Amino acid sequence: MGAEEAVLIGNSAGGTIAALTALGHPARVRAPVLVDPAIYVGGGAPTLIQPLLRTPQLRHLGPLIARRIRDWGPRLLESAWHDPTLITDEIRREYEKGLQVEDWGRALWELTAASRRPDLESRLDEITLPVLVVTGDDDRIVPTEQSVRLAGELPDAELVVFPSCGHLPQEECPAPFLEAVTAFVSTLTE
């Protein structure tokens, strides 16, 4: 895209990717905005079962297992919001679009089988860029306490906790989210 430097915004596992990118390319990342980042949780299948995920049997059955997200996905979406009554039919349809792509079950399975825990915990002190950590006070996917902990362990972090908000503040609390990100970005140009 021709950008020399960027502010990266990543939610959940995307927060992990933004943090890893900041570590790997600090000259290209102006600052990461980590939204309910999965730094201490998640990151792939447990090490003990990773070899099983690549067996011929699970390579065949895995996509069928992954397709079960159609059954439990709506519950996961509802648990990501503080107030699931705010999830409109349009929002649900947007989340279901990915389930209409050809071979989406195989793609989800391959992602699961290939994922590894990045062990960012031991490298947090290397992220010396300014960082904005944002979370909802009712995040049931990546517990709020973990975002608070992360902001305390990063050398130059600001923490914003949105009241009555869950794991997706950019969707559930868009106005305060945009205000916090805009205020943070404006401090980077001062």
Feature tags:
Rossmann fold; 9 helices; 2 domains; 190 residues; alpha/beta; 13% strand
Provide a descriptive summary of the structure in words.
It is a single chain. A four-stranded parallel β-sheet has the order 1-2-3-4, with helices on both faces. β1, α1 and β2 form a beta-alpha-beta unit. The chain is built from nine helices and four strands. The protein is an alpha/beta fold and 190 residues long.
**Major sheet size, sense and barrel closure:** 4 strands, parallel
* Radius of gyration over all CA atoms, rounded: 18 Å
Total strand segments: 4
Mean pLDDT: 89
What sort of overall outline do the alpha carbons produce when their principal axes are compared?
Answer: globular
Q: Output the helix-strand order.
A: EHEHHHHHEHEHH
N→C terminal distance? 25 Å
CATH homologous superfamily name of the largest domain? Answer: Alpha/Beta hydrolase fold, catalytic domain
Q: What structural class do the secondary elements suggest?
A: alpha/beta
Q: How are the strands of the largest sheet arranged?
A: 1-2-3-4
The CATH topology assignment of the largest domain is: Rossmann fold
